[in-house]
Write a structure and sequence with these properties.
The chain is of the alpha+beta class. The protein has 2 domains: 54 residues; 81 residues, Dna Ligase, domain 1. A 3-stranded mixed β-sheet has the order 4-3-5, with no helix packed on it. It has a two-stranded antiparallel sheet with strand order 1-2. Strands 6-7 form a two-stranded antiparallel sheet. Helix 1 packs across helix 3 and helix 2 crosses helix 3. It is globular and about 50 Å long.
Length: 153
């Protein structure tokens, strides 16, 4: 990937962010110093950075793609009311393994996302913004909670 001032500015904005921004938020931050930058450039650059492993796209975090430049092994707390995403570190979660190997699948990394209410939203009666309900993922009849219990023991 060619290094351009636009790509550097986008990557820097993501490195400086602690809120796991969506492309539109990055566009707003970078556009103040690069008014000719397009939203399409933001999307293409984020896809390229993700492809290189420099950033990660967060799955299932509200209504918009969110990105994280923190590529250390960590997990996320996702507020279903305000869509805030917070990094969460827990070595026990890092050790989760699949109970079986479905169709030869080899997991390379574990990423756990807890969906619930952040402390601020839990203490207020603000309307819920996220439209994605929480649901337990199942694999071969075993719930994630069982895998977490096994990893912690």
């Amino acid at each position: 990937m060619a290094v351009t001032p636009q790509r550097i500015a986008i990557y820097r904005a993501l490195l400086e962010a602690n809120d796991h921004p969506n492309p539109e938020a990055i566009y707003t931050r970078v556009r103040s110093t690069m008014p000719s930058l397009s939203l399409a450039t933001i999307y293409k650059t984020l896809d390229a950075l993700a492809g290189l492993g420099l950033v990660s796209e967060l799955p299932a975090t509200g209504n918009s793609r969110r990105y994280d430049a923190n590529i250390d092994l960590h997990h996320h707390l996702v507020c279903t009311r305000c869509d805030r995403v917070t990094d969460y570190y827990d070595p026990a979660l890092d050790r989760i393994t699949l109970p079986s190997r479905p169709a030869g699948f080899r997991a390379r990394r574990v990423s756990v996302h807890f969906h619930g209410l952040c402390a601020n939203c839990a203490n207020t009666r603000a309307p819920r913004r996220s439209s994605r309900p929480f649901r337990k993922e199942r694999h071969n009849g075993q719930e994630l909670e069982g895998a977490v219990r096994r990893a912690r023991s």
